Amino acid sequence: MRIIFRVVMQVFFLASFCLAQDHDFSKVEIKVTRVAGSVYMLQGAGGNIGACVGEDGIVVVDDQYAPLAEKIQAALKGITDKPVRFIINTHYHLDHTGGNEFFQKQGPIIAHDNVRKRLEEGSAAGNGASMHVEHKPQPKGALPIITFDHEVTVHLNGEDIRALHFPAGHTDGDSVIYFPKANVVHMGDDFVTYGFPFIDVDGGGSIDGMISGVEGAIAQLPADVKVIPGHGPISNLDDVRAYVKMLKDTRAVVQDGLRKQMTLEQMKEKKVLDPWKKYSGDFVSEDAFLETLYNSLTGQKNSKFIKHN
Ligand SMILES: [Zn+2]
Fold first, then answer.
1. Which of 30, 46, 108, 283 has the fewest Cβ atoms nearer than 10 Å?
2. Best CA proximity match to 288, nearest among 169, 168, 132, 134
3. CA 55–ligand 1 middle distance (angstroms)
4. How far does the centroid of ligand 1 lie from the alpha carbon of residue 184, in Å?
């Protein structure tokens, strides 16, 4: 039973976060939604794409998988004939950066320093336990040409598009992208709607950083901002607050277990996250999230330690 469960987990993990060669992208269609003002959301497979479109051209946030790049390009052409000027990566995962090499021929990619490092060196993404996806080193053309440590602003289309880095959340290179004039924010994978989030503990992410990052973002955003999650439909700040509450409540339960010197296996047997089981999903199950919290709070990692920030 346990072995079957692990195999199923692995399949789901790869399905949600799939390696290009394992997935049939031919049937994927790119859906375009206008979020507000100059900002659009594109959905295909992988992370949500943001696009700021205007007289100066297009600023793209994330680019999904390499085999979808031409479809994404065609969807952008459906909005405007203007060129792609810049691409911003919210983090290094291959479901957000796969189109980098294709799009960087049109405009430079901007990302946090650690995104470039992890794309260049390759990285083991995982929760320190059952979830694990190897990211191979990427070719030079896919590496962000412009990197920053704290924040950067792109002034185009009458917008002041701000990329704000929050440390050690979903990964160690996350940025939240805020479009003040349109009143839209792209949260990257620090906020997702598929249930318990994946936290890349092996890639420098942590539960504490994810909570403080999302709370830090909320503090800087207007109450009525429209929220593009890393994955899922357009949301609002109440959705984000409910998500942070779940993160804090589940963290507290595991911290309590650690104070009582419970092992991971004991917490699994006791099903300490059962009150939040509606968040248990195909991608991150209750047990997988428990492993994530446990490994994050106790500092356990699977990958060889690479110091990135
Ligand atoms: Zn991600």
1. 108
2. 132
3. 31
4. 20
| Axis-axis angle for helices 286-298, 237-259 (nearest 10) | 70
Residue 309 pLDDT > 60, yes or no? Answer: no
Instruction: Using the mean position of ligand 1's atoms as its centre, give its distance from the Cα of residue 57 in Å.
Output: 27
**Cα→Cα distances 123→47, 101, 134, 166, 168, Å:** 18, 18, 6, 19, 15
R_g (Cα) of the chain, nearest Å: 19
CA distance 24 to 127: 26
* Band (17; pLDDT cuts 50, 70, 90): low
Q: What is the mean pLDDT of residues 275-297?
A: 96
Distance (Å) from CA 42 to ligand 1 centroid = 16
> Span 209-216, mean pLDDT?
98
**CA atoms within 13 Å, Cβ hemisphere of 255:** 8
